[in-house]
């Protein structure tokens, strides 16, 4: 006998519902037989409980022209669907779950739709009525109406599908267990679109979807589908370019009238008959339910996630990156410069590397001129903030999975990277480097408190990390005193700082009565000390001028020191060398907390004396009375201003051998921070060799 369609029914522990489920399937099969269609029931018992096993063994299936029972131990809905499909004999195949019901016309209308649209189309029911623990009514539509791009952020179709058996020669259901993964049906639908299939509906059919307290839909909060080939950049661009054009910046489709749809359902004779037939089997389904439940449409899913992803990947191909850098933004200094120097060193050691830089926080003008040409830059904050900023982390994950599946991740301490890892570290298999420079310090009523976000990140995600790298040993030691870090490579990589000078060639110190402050005008750098230091300077010698360079990364500022007579605000700067460091007597560096700041190293490399506080790793380079003037730190601003003034006065009162300090500082830079020393350290830390 030729079988027109096979029903692949998956079972596990649904014995309390099987009598109603089987009566519903039998009702639809009987109606299909009346219309001349032959059917096969394939029961797939995947590690069933005893009650389910016994029910299936005792049951009769006279409404079906054939039936077979499979016993498997997959403990996976997707894999068990595949087993049932492989055993099916029908020309067309439809999936089924053991606790749901279908409208009496389900198989007839699905068969008609499959004949109408051909083997390249997958058919879904037009309506889904959810009942039980959660209720709603959803109307579904075709691929052309709902768009492929929506599949990135939501399942536009349902788990109950029908198609020609040849579809499964190209597609299989995935095992969606493990990590955060779920939704094998959503994944299958994505794979179908990637393979070029389209979706349509069997008109006037209803899937009555039972919502149980422990069902997949009610226990899958926070889970995501496994990675799909649809998310590969070239595939996504090909399948979604026209959708993106049609959407034209909208975040939702317009025009669905839920009350009008509800009234159409209530006025429909076919719907009344379908609900009445289902109600005869399962009284929980009734027309009163339709009068009060939420009515929605598959076109009501979010467009923002897919559109943002499309913008992020449309310029990419499917080539794999070797390294991915997670930055808040690309600034010219700080931790960003440090990590970019690492990237440049890695490229020098292996020119075939391809680097992807993803940024996830607001920033007006990224310093893109600092990026090597082998770097691809994507500003995810700029893209996602125009669509839906909360999607930035799933988009980050999908990009990494698509084009950097085995790459090394380089993680800058920042809220973007922390939130991404908090959400999706379970889905990552990449080796990862965390750059740990310092802990932020805040004051409360004279008490200093450390921000533990960096240490917390290491504590929580150490199993996912391969390296912790710092620009000075103090931070590594701080972490080791508090955490067990066995198995991790914990390394100090001193920042590179190249100098063209030699200690013996430095010009003798001749005071010009100009001091330099150059850094970011942000909380971390303690700029509120500048007016206090300036006031003391003015009392000491009104002729001494303090030039201030820099701007805030986080807030706008114009001329914050305009009323202070001996302070000249010079604005921002791009390169330290452009500030003419030879025209100053010393760098006055202020900071609340720090790693080993670039500006201090650059000053020493230019032969400029450094006056700086003993915070973070600064004491690793400013050795007291050997390479500069190191000031004991204090939380009180007035105390610190006095200490800075004491150090500055020594500079002008000939009680210091300034030239010896400058030479000592330059010698340290040449020995420990040279290109040669830096490259040797990078090779050792990352176990690389010259190409």
Automatic annotation (TrEMBL):
Domain Glycosyltransferase 2-like: 6-147
Gene3D superfamilies xrefs: Glycogen Phosphorylase B (3.40.50.2000), Spore Coat Polysaccharide Biosynthesis Protein SpsA, Chain A (3.90.550.10)
A family per Pfam: Glycos_transf_2
Superkingdom of source: Bacteria
InterPro entries: Glyco_trans_2-like (IPR001173), Nucleotide-diphossugar_trans (IPR029044)
Coiled-coil regions listed: none
Name of this protein: Glycosyltransferase 2-like domain-containing protein
Species name: Advenella kashmirensis W13003
